[in-house]
Write a structure and sequence with these properties.
Length: 441
Amino acid sequence: MSAHTLRSQGSAGSLPESISQIRRSSMGAHRDANELNAVVMLTDGTEFEIPCKNGKYTSGEELRELVARRIGLAPEYTAMFAVWIMSGSLSLEMKAHHFPFKVLKQWGDLLEGYSLSAEYELPMMYFKRAALVPQDDEILIDDPTVVKLLFAEMTFSVQYGLYPCTIDEAARLAAIHLHIARGDAAKKDDVYELEACEIPEHLEKAIKFKAWAKKVLEAREEITLPHTDRVALQQQYLTIGRLWPYYGATFYFGEIEATTKHLLWDTPDELVRVGVNIDGIHVIADAKNKLRLSLGYDELRYNSYADDAGGSPCFILEHSRGGQTQQTVIWSKQATIIDTLVSRFLELQPRYASKVAARKALRGVESVELSGESRRIGFLGAARQTLRRLRAYTAGDEEDSRPRYPAFTLSNIGAKQRGRVPFDEEAAAGPAPSALAEDNM
């Protein structure tokens, strides 16, 4: 995924005059004056306005259950999903004890503390898969609502470049969408009109639209399922994505040293996305959308570190390459968040390790295990590695004059979704995204 230009939305430490996710209830004087409406989006672009009687004291668990009931999600599957607050360079899952409205109010401070962005980014609330749900659990569920939600989320991740894929893979995925929406009546114009049939941005320079449309139409002709068997086709779509090591990953942003033959001190670092899931840790070059590093938990050791003297926080991966142990340092304000999620997935490894290994074998990838029971790098060793790379421009209160990479922004996605045919034609019945409303909290 190529980097997107951030839109200026105010200073990082201030709250904008309007927030898209909070609306005061206008349902009459008999209602509680503290009631708020939460505007929550699904990843297919459908927007719901959820009345919250407890107002700003509505918990993450309560809001999740309210959204689940609104969309008809069965109670036994509600725990698979969560409300997320997301902006261009930061995504946070709302846990049961969190208060989403309060998090929205604090978003400017959170961006300043955990984001690469120098601009304010408007937060949006999404209802999507919880971070700690392994694909091994979701694959057992054939509930149509669950499948539709997972299908929409994978579509989102493919279309907007979070999941790198080849032209052939992208065409097969687009063909499934085309088949669901148009069946045997599909034609070239439909490839343009359906957003999920567009060429993923990171592949736009690799193929012309005419050749792309032909490829998608040919792939659709190879589908044997009837277009009315929507759930089976959505499952087929998910099956393709589950072969990727980064499927279902939660992504964070960071920077690594640029890999050039003649590295100069003023060479800009390379922006990367760091995906964390049950299969491991996956480092993707953001501009080129290329997988740089993919490691299972048996292949790595890790730690996070921030220097009190003013150095940049970082997440460190230790792994084997060419028979030698190497360290990859990812400079990121989100290092501690990455560390926490990795630790949680390590706790789940005994239960899922055999299935993870089977998937890796299916991809034809051999593991290069690191010896030792502990997966965490000794803290002093990590500190030495980090201190060697402490940036000179942090010394002497000098301003960083090096170019900074812009981050992927959901505001562009929201704008793109408006006025286009949704991923799934059924979503067209949902309310259209609306303009920003005043924040009267």
